[in-house]
Every structure is written in C-alpha cells, then in structure tokens.
C-alpha cells in the first residue's frame, strides 16, 4: 500500500451513509462488504455478511481470493473511515464500483444497526 493510496487523508472517494447501507442490506440489495480492520476488531463487531481483508494485506491478489463480483457494488468499512480510503481507491482502479461507509463502524454503531461477533 503506497503513500499515494492514503493521500489525501480524507474524502475524495464515494461514500454511503450507515442509514443508506442498512436500508440496502435490509432490502436485500446486492451490496458486498469488505471490512479492512484488524482481526481483533472484526471479531468483536462487524456487519453481517462482511468479508475480512485487513488493510495491511490489501492487494489485488488477496481481494481476488475473496471472489467479490465486480458487477456488484462493494463497500469498504473500517472503524472511522480512514483505513477504508485507500481500499476504495485501489478497488476503483481495479474496476470495482467501490464506496466507503461514511463515518465507518463508529457511524454504524451510533445508529444502533445490527452487528455480529465471533469467529
């Protein structure tokens, strides 16, 4: 992950709000989720159906191993919408319709949307 993937540190990628994502998931829309937080964070609390790929391992080959569908939208998630920025930038370059969860899991939790935990 190069510096150009992180700069600028904020903004400059498409986003979806926690409310919009929860609505899309409840409606059964074909939204895919990649959670780029650490293993510990992912195990503690995550959105149901999210697949895990830590930002430290985020490469085209590791993403390909998760078999995401490039024809369906994908949302990158982290704790506060900072680690998800480079993931969205990379996925966009790789041909995905990628967005990040605006405000990250902090926004998701603050709106009391459902989570799961464990292995």
Please, could you describe this protein's structure?
- A five-stranded parallel beta sheet has the order 1-5-4-2-3.
- The protein has helices at 3-6, 18-26, 39-44, 60-64, 84-93, 104-110; strands at 15-16, 32-35, 51-52, 74-77, 98-101.
- With 119 residues, the chain is of the alpha/beta class.
- The chain has a single domain (3-110), classed as Rhodanese-like domain (Oxidized Rhodanese, domain 1, 3-Layer(aba) Sandwich).
- The longest helix has 10 residues, at 84-93.
- It starts with a helix and ends in a 9-residue tail after the last helix.
Tertiary shape: globular
Within the CATH hierarchy, at the fold level, what is the topology?
A: Oxidized Rhodanese, domain 1
N-to-C span: 27 Å
The fourth-level CATH homologous superfamily is: Rhodanese-like domain
How confident is the prediction overall: mean pLDDT?
A: 92
Global structural class = alpha/beta
Helical region count? 6
Count of spatially separate domains: 1
Q: What is the H/E order?
A: HEHEHEHEHEH
Read across the widest sheet, the strand sequence of neighbours is 1-5-4-2-3
Unreliable segments (pLDDT under 50, ≥5 consecutive)?
none
């Amino acid at each position: 992950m190069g510096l150009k993937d992180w700069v600028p540190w904020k903004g400059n990628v498409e986003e979806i709000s926690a409310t919009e994502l929860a609505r899309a998931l409840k409606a059964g829309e074909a939204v895919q989720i990649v959670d780029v937080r650490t293993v510990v964070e992912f195990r503690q609390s995550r959105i149901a159906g999210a697949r895990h790929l830590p930002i430290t391992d985020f490469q085209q080959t590791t993403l390909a191993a998760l078999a995401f569908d490039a024809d369906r939208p994908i949302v990158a998630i982290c704790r506060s919408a900072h680690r998800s920025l480079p993931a969205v930038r990379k996925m966009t370059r790789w041909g995905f319709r990628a967005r990040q969860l605006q405000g990250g899991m902090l926004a998701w939790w603050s709106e009391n949307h459902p989570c799961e935990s464990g292995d």
